[in-house]
Amino acid sequence: MQRPIPAATADTREFWEACGRGELVYQVCRSCARAQFYPRRHCAYCQAGEPEWRRSAGLGAVYSHTTVYRAPTPAFKADVPYVIALVDLDEGFRMMVNILGCAPSAVAIGSRVRIVFRPTGGGVALPQGELV
Amino acid sequence: MKPRALITGVGDTAVGELAGSSCMGLHREAALAAVADAGLTLADIDGVLCAYSFTEPHLMLGSVFCEYMGVHPGFCSAIQAGGASACIMLMQAAALVASGQCRHVLAVTGDNRLSGMSRDGAVAALADVGHPQFERPYGISVPAAYALVARRYMHEYGATPEQLAAIAVEHRTHAARHPKAHKRAPITVADVMASREICSPLRLLDCCLISDGGAAVVVSAADTAGDAPNRPVAILGAGQGHTHEHIVCAPSLTDFGCKDSSRRAFGQAGVSAADIDVAEIYDSFTITLLVELESIGFFPRGEAGPAAQAGALGLGGALPCNTHGGLLSYGHSGAAGGMFHAVEAVHQLRHNAGPRQVRDAELAFVHGDGGILSAHCSLVLGRT
Known about the structure:
The structure holds 2 protein chains of 2 kinds.
Chain A: H1 13-20, E1 25-28, E2 35-36, E3 52-55, E4 59-68, E5 82-89, E6 94-100, E7 112-119, E8 125-131
Parallel strand pairs in A: 6-8
Antiparallel strand pairs in A: 1-2, 1-3, 4-5, 4-7, 5-6, 7-8
Chain B: E1 5-12, H1 23-37, E2 47-50, H2 61-69, E3 75-78, H3 85-98, E4 104-112, H4 119-127, H5 142-157, H6 161-175, H7 189-194, E5 197-199, E6 202-203, E7 212-220, E8 233-242, H8 258-269, E9 278-281, H9 286-296, H10 304-309, H11 326-330, H12 335-350, E10 363-370, E11 375-383
Parallel strand pairs in B: 2-3, 2-4, 9-10
Antiparallel strand pairs in B: 1-7, 1-8, 4-7, 5-6, 8-11, 10-11
């Protein structure tokens, strides 16, 4: 069984293309100036159209985290235990990543995280997190 | 308080591992029991609401049920809102009879999630609620998403694993008083703390069961009160709250749509949380209940956990909660899991809950949440 590979939609194609270049991008509303994630063709706070794409520095802090011992599907069984975190990027948006390259016990709320990119089986580069 | 609608009948099946059961068979058994309890026949039912199924999934489960039973109501629909489905079905049924569109609406749920599919299959199917691009590639599951809530809630308000364990223990104590409950063997806080880790900080006994079972409720127009053979229960208030679907988009990990849904339901009923005698609140995980109790306002922030340790959620406590044992110990059969809460509230308000009876219960609060604390629906029910 294969891990889910993100399939870009018209709303998210630009995001995944940027990941392929090793860049993390996000959107800021041209009307209310709020940052949002995931990408859409409108602002989810004020519904104004076509938010502006910006490049993120890819640095943030762990808002919450869990260590998964029970895999949801066979595709993840070889990876347990693995860490899932919600990371608040410094530009004001939140995304989900795995925290790679450390013991799960090293991850805490507030831990600083750098976004890195890892290949998936489907030719898509997936944003992931590492402790800074 | 003039009721908008009445619950005139309830019915449920056995719960647990039911060899030979089927999704539609469980629907049939629960539906016939509820209709008989209301003193009606299927011919009297002019509205049908169904939810969803994992073992017999279909785009139009309401139509599938009506075809299976051979009934032809004037209104039929299916509602899919995860754990909020049962309460939303009852809210919708109340609106249908209050508007005059229907006289008697049957809300019926059931699934053979335990015997009809593997436990792995159920866990995988549930994980599909994760966002396909921004959550599922990271191995998200429903327990993992709730664990993210638990970790943050513990960080902000000091809730502890022992407090969560106390909630699981109290639910088992409740379930031991219900002859139908899936899990009745007593457990201790130490048992919960020693159960295997699923997604930290949640352990196996912090998680709801996977069960076969079905439950149904008949909602009737307010002017049918004199016709029902069993004491009707009034639907005094109903409300919903919606903030997000995916946990990555939740505006808060400590406040959820239950705040709005309960405020609307209490407001419509003209009561407050302090007036509630018995609460049947969605408990997919121990953290689910703790967050909802505090977000709704039954307890101040940080106090539901210590209160649970002191027995506040037990029979005779300040807020007897999930007196049948809830999803944690009574059983969880998809949308029927939430319907079990409603069925138990009706038994409590009819004063026929036997050894589980909350003395002199007049007002009950029933709450369901779907997704990752995403979709919420609250009901205030009253004894007539």
